[in-house]
Amino acid sequence: MLAKAKARHIRISAQKVRLVLDLIRRKPANTALSILGNTHKRAAEPVSKLLRSAIANAKNKGIAEDGLFISKICADEGVTWKRFMANAFGRGSRIFKRTSHITIELDKKEVAPKAVQPPGKKVTKKAEKPVKAKKEAKPAVNKTAKK
Question: Which of 39, 56, 80, 88 is the S-S candidate for 44 at Cβ 3.0 to 4.6 Å?
Answer without folding.
Answer: 39
